[in-house]
Design a protein that fits this description.
The chain is an all-beta fold and about 525 residues long. The protein has one helix at about 285-295; strands at about 1-10, 15-20, 30-40, 45-55, 55-60, 65-75, 85-90, 100, 105, 115-120, 130-135, 140-145, 150-155, 160-170, 180-185, 195, 205-210, 215-225, 230-240, 245, 255-265, 275-280, 305-320, 325-345, 350-365, 365-385, 390-405, 415-430, 435-450, 450-455, 460, 465-475, 480-495, 510-525. It folds into four domains: about 1-90, Sandwich (Immunoglobulin-like), CATH 2.60.40.10; about 100-185, Immunoglobulins (Immunoglobulin-like); about 195-280, Immunoglobulin-like (Sandwich), CATH 2.60.40; about 295-525, Beta Barrel (Lipocalin), CATH 2.40.128.100. The longest helix is centred in the middle third of the chain and has 9 residues, at about 285-295. Mean pLDDT is about 90; it is low at about 5-10. This is Fibronectin type-III domain-containing protein.
Amino acid sequence: MISFWTSMVLAAPYRRLVNFEWEAIENAKSYEIELKQVKSSKEEDAKTFTFKVSEAAWNGRLTPGKYMMKLRSRDYRGVPGDWSEPSEFNVGLETAVLKFPGARVKMATKETDSTSLEFKWAPVGGADQYHFVLTSDDGKTQITETLKDPSFKVKVPVASHYTWKVSSSNNEGITSDATAVGQFTLLGKPIENPRIEKPESDFVRELKWSRPDHVSSYDVYLLKYNTADKKWEKLKVYENYQQDTLPFDDNLPGGKYQVVVRAKSDLRPSAPLAKQSFSVRSGDRSPAAEYTALVRKSIERVTGWYAVASYLITEMSYQGVNPEKNSSVAYKALGGTGRLGVGWFAPHTPWGFLGIIDMSGFTFNGKTQTFASAEANAVYRRAVGDRGEVRFQAGPYYKELPETVGDPFSGSSEDMKISSAGPHFGAEYWYSLTPKLGIQVNAHLYMSLMKISTPNGEPMEPKMSTQFGFLGSYRFTPRFTGLIGYAMREDKMSYKAKTGTDSFASDGDVNESTIIGNYLNVFAEWSF
């Protein structure tokens, strides 16, 4: 019986160490070995090697290939015996040593779908080509290539387990002793954060979030804020949750809540935690109560800062009486008023404030007159029924008013200005028709009590200016409401007429200016 084995020897040309052993023959003193390397089917092309050994073993270096071997013994006289029958054997190529990717490595990538990967292995001595096979565990990827170089670059899908194999061969058909096998995992890009929708109202029925690509499940945590301990407490945990909506338990008490969502995916790193805080109404959260609250949205302001802007367009009617100059003037002119304001409502009280400045103007006989006003009000609001709300305003104001004085003899006129200050009182009633549509009725009183300036320097005579109107409102977004309607405004001021030789006035006379306008009122309100 003959046995043999091989091991690597680093030499050039490439050879491998071959070892033979056989059963010793009785009375044999030496052995002859004949090896023929067969590179083709023609026997005459075979290369023959002969070796003599004294023991029943032989070792030597052979290049990979196909060989035929014969063996005979010699006795103590040197007489040879018969040659054994030829036996065939192959000296194979080494098994490839895989270098990259490493064994069972998990490789992170920044790609969503696929990435380029270069496979590398150590060159195999005597190999003329390599046979490369790549397969994914899910069977969707299978790549087979015959290569000349000990590397291969290919684009492969991410988020998958892979097995790759490399074997070698030469041009005579000699193959490697075994196939080198490696396994690795290619991770995908971390999945995106889900976007949690904030509930539109504090009547929370369900929680919703977006579903990023490649998500397989979620971990969802529901927390409630403990106002006594001032910390978040975990109420419920849903692991490996499959849906992108979560019903909110109607039996949970009102208060401040937070939902935390982690999106997960197979073979893709999980997304960071997504968080959304929201408030839940205490008490009755029935559908009827929700509908009432929903309808009121058209008139409710978002708590906190807000801004207002309006423009009033009208044909103004002016009337002025000035006994000092023996003047009585009346005319009509096209004009308007622009208003800007900023206000604030406290979150948990009915109190707030509103400050407004406006500028009015009109053109008559080619001349444009402008006059300003400003007011600062405390505001108190109170609900009236299910759909109504009344808002009271009170505070100081400053107002200017033009005065036109005509000369009855020359027909010329002179434009002057009066300014005063005093208290303002206002009331507004808002009523909601639908969650977006509402109506408003308003009334405002302005008392001119304190002189700021008069043309002749005389004191003011108390007068009242008024404004009445109504508006229809439409809530375009939770932070923007538009209104349009009608306003009737009468601005009036008077001051004592000066008597003397250059005056036509008598004791007790007053100079007075009045402007009456029926306005088209366009109004807008923004919440910050």
